[in-house]
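Everyone, carefully examine this protein record:
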Amino acid sequence: MKKVLVAVVAAAGVLCSSQVFADEAMAKAKGCTACHKIDAKLIGPAYKEVAKKYAGQAGAVDTLTQKVLDGGKGVWGPVAMTPNKGKVSPAEAKTLVQWLLSLK
């Protein structure tokens, strides 16, 4: 029984950590990291700052997904975020936003 429990816990850990890496890899592959870093402002805000600002807000996933797709300006300063439609699908944008909001 202990071996089974250890295997289940280990598998869960791998699944959780691989999801984070998969989404960080997607952010890199989609060009998001040209303007954003996880822990520090680059051109745009740090992902962790976005996560902190939108923590617990109803509709944050939908709002931010739309911003990823359509771009936006004025929330984080004068530099506009360019639209990403065509580079990122709506499903990919949502996955990226869910990952971003999970950062602490």
